[in-house]
Amino acid sequence: MRVRYAKRGRMRFASHRDIARALERALRRAEVPVAFSAGFTPHPKISYTGAAPTGVASEAEYFELTLAEPRDPGQVRARLDAAMPDGLDVVEVVGASPGGLADRLEASEWQVDMHGVAPDDAEQAVAAFLAADAVEVERLTKKGRRRFDARAAVLRMRVDGRGTTEQDETYAILRMVVRHTTPAVRPDDVVTGLRQVAGLAPPSSPVMTRLAQGPLDEASDAIADPLAADDQADPDGRAGPPRPSSPTRSSPHA
After folding, report:
1. Looking at the DSSP assignment, which residues form a beta bridge with residue 161?
2. Region label for 228, one of left (φ > 0), alpha (ψ between -120 and 50) or beta (otherwise)
3. CATH number for region 2-102+226-233
4. In the chain, where the domains are located
5. Calpha distance 119→172 (Å, rounded)
6. Whole-model pTM above 0.90?
7. pLDDT tens digits along 49-107
8. Would you say domain 106-222 falls under CATH 2.40.128?
9. How many CB atoms lie within 10 A of CB 245?
10. 140: exposed, middle or buried (C-beta count within 10 Å: 0-12, 13-18, 19+)?
11. Residue 195 and residue 197: Cα distance in Å, rounded?
């Protein structure tokens, strides 16, 4: 089975290891018959792909799950969602069709709330970033400090709206589509690039939310549903009505 889940609120600060532990506990509480690997130290057959970085909220996280016994996807979704901690919500469960899920996750759509940044200043910075031939940023990775071009991965970016704080201060909301590359270009790398090319420096850490990830339409830079092919084979696993290929809603992250 393939599962889409959301990481919201304070759970965006949980590490991938913490989320994996929470999921395994939830599977036991929900009595989902997970298959285990063979060998001296058996492990549950769970495969994660395209996980968002720690500190980032997401409406589109995915993992694959092998069961020891057949189960209805809709029932698995409901039982697993009820057993998950607050901030981790199981949105969709479908039976897996042939083909790797990881190969379908070609790009992500991100929302970045930049508190303390005026929308006009953000628009100027976005224009400068998109006009640049290359924007090199540096980040510490598992393989050491790497320098790479953040501009090449950004397919489109715009100031999508204006948010308002409780103090009636207006701030910029960015929306961007970023191609999955190696090393991965994350939304914080793009924010670093905006500072380099235009001096845009938010006074506080931006709030970042992944809205979608999946197959990329090269003509329109739109992101399609990566579980659409699976859902056609098993239509009973969805939690709600079909979603548009490119979400337009704002995601909760409070």
Report:
1. 173
2. alpha
3. 3.30.70.580
4. 2-102+226-233, 106-222
5. 4
6. no
7. 989 999 999 999 999 999 999 999 999 999 999 999 999 999 999 999 988 999 999 99
8. no
9. 15
10. exposed
11. 6
